[in-house]
């Protein structure tokens, strides 16, 4: 057998695994990424991410690349089985407080290619396809990962300080640590149809949700010439019943109309079982679960793939800090403490919306027909429906709530354009802790803040960040490398001593150019 050694081995080279590898590479952490596919998996799956997840993509240095392959969604339209509009919730395509459109549609293979191209900019990362994982075993000072080359049949193994299981719903890593999926009581079978056409479908540019318990459906445009439909399958139906355009026409005609078959290219037809599940354990010593290996989200709020990127964003900086010796190993306990309740909340939200749009039989249909138009006219409700903000993280060693400014802890710091700069905050400061303050720290306080590896960000009253702090009844906030607020308060003297020491290597080119203090 051939043995290799890495600080981190990542099992799975999908969006979650590649994101984790890139974030670790930005801190100088070498990784081996193993996947059974040799290259990007060609079939489209996920089609949406929100502005919070877009912000993670931007932290990878890929904001412009993603913008070129994606398009903002204009909102949500609820229609009945006759395609009569019940309610419409429009979403402004301007940038949110995160710095990006709130809803973004894309083709997953194209997105994965962007992610891999970004990862290729970093040394110290080895992505190896055609690799089947055969064992993940804890040893005294690390983890042993055994795998087989699917081409040569050669048996190999790697020793790692930590292993990240990003290997999907049928995770081998999850099985290796004895973790099991817990069911949250939702299971539906849906037909997924991807189609390409250069013809104009003349449809509204948002998501269409057909609220019909007999044949619920979703339509969305995901690219310049790419479209996605999802239809709930009836008992006994499968993708085999819809092999071509002739059999699909009755489903597609409300959108494609009289376009000839010659103008329509059927990219994919498959069926999925949408489930709501959360693994009972996300960590066993040096092994972690991320993405679909840890949780499965029905697609009704478009948060499935994004949840995996959130996992990677939450864990990577903590792991880099532990490997760099500036954070204690107990810091890694906060990953599951923070992410599991958040993922569970989003799954519950997805199942609730899924039920409201698809279940209830004739009674549900009557309720939707009468209530949906009223909902569209309630002041403030439209903004609530289209708001992409997600819940605050639960308290942990890195999320401290206090009676005065507890509303900020666990939420994301805004990402404004600082005064005198054309770039957003995230582009002007490194992936370190930030001390965002409306008041100038004393010389001693600044020394202590910078000694711990943090960056002072000035937030004058009236500025975007200043108004954000004032709205949270705070004068300053500690912002983590993933841009989550750790703690906020009114006393700089008390707050600055709560900063953790965090000084990993930081080779990312945009980070190393950053000044030590910024104004926003």
UniProtKB/TrEMBL annotation:
One of its GO terms (molecular function) is 3-(3-hydroxyphenyl)propionate hydroxylase activity. It comes from Rhodococcus jostii. GO terms for biological process: 3-(3-hydroxy)phenylpropionate catabolic process. Residues 6-348 form the FAD-binding domain. Residues 499-520 are annotated as: Disordered. The keyword Plastid does not apply. NCBIfam families: PRK06183.1-3. This is 3-(3-hydroxy-phenyl)propionate hydroxylase.
């Amino acid at each position: 057998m051939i043995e290799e050694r890495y600080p981190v081995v990542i099992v799975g080279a999908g969006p979650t695994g590649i994101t984790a590898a890139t974030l670790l590479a930005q801190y100088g952490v070498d990784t081996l990424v193993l996947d059974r596919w040799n290259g990007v998996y060609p079939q489209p799956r996920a089609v949406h991410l929100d502005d919070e997840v877009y912000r993670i993509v931007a932290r990878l240095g890929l904001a412009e690349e993603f913008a070129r392959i994606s398009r903002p969604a204009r909102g949500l339209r609820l229609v009945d089985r006759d395609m009569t509009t019940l309610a419409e919730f429009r979403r402004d395509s301007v940038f949110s407080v995160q710095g990006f459109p709130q809803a973004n549609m894309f083709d997953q293979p194209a997105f994965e290619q962007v992610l891999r191209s970004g990862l290729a900019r970093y040394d110290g990362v080895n992505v190896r396809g055609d690799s089947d994982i055969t064992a993940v075993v804890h040893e005294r000072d690390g983890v042993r990962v055994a795998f087989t080359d699917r081409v040569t049949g050669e048996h190999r193994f790697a020793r790692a300080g930590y292993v990240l299981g990003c290997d999907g719903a049928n995770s081998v890593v999850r099985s290796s640590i004895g973790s099991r999926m817990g069911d949250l009581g939702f299971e539906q079978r849906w037909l997924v149809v991807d189609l390409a056409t250069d013809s104009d479908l003349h449809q509204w540019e948002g998501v269409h949700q057909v609220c019909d318990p007999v044949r619920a459906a979703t339509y969305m445009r995901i690219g310049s010439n790419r479209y996605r439909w999802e239809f709930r399958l009836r008992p006994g139906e499968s993708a085999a019943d819809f092999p071509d355009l002739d059999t699909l026409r009755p489903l597609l005609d409300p959108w494609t109309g009289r376009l000839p078959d010659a103008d329509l290219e059927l990219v994919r037809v498959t069926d999925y079982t949408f489930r709501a599940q959360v693994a009972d354990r996300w960590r066993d010593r040096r092994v972690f679960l991320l993405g679909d290996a840890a949780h499965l989200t029905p697609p009704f709020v478009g948060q499935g793939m994004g949840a995996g990127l959130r996992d990677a964003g939450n864990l990577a900086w903590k792991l880099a800090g532990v490997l760099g010796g500036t954070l204690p190993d107990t810091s890694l306990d906060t990953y599951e403490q923070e992410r599991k309740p958040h993922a569970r909340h989003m799954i519950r939200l997805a199942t609730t919306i899924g039920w409201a749009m698809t279940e209830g039989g004739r009674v549900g249909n009557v309720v939707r027909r009468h209530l949906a138009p009223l909902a569209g006219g309630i002041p403030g409700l439209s903004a609530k429906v289209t708001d992409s903000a997600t819940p605050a993280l639960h308290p942990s060693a890195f999320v401290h709530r206090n009676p005065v400014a507890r509303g900020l802890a666990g939420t994301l710091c805004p990402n404004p354009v600082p005064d005198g700069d054309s770039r957003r905050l995230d582009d002007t400061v490194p992936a370190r802790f930030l001390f965002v303050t409306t008041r100038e720290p004393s010389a001693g306080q600044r020394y202590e803040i910078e000694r711990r590896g943090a960056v002072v960000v000035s937030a004058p009253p009236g500025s975007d960040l200043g108004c954000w702090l004032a709205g949270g009844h705070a004068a300053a906030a500690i912002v983590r490398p993933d841009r989550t607020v750790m703690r906020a308060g009114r006393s700089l003297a008390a707050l600055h001593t709560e900063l953790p020491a965090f000084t990993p290597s930081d080779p990312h080119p945009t980070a190393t150019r950053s000044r030590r203090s910024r104004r926003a």
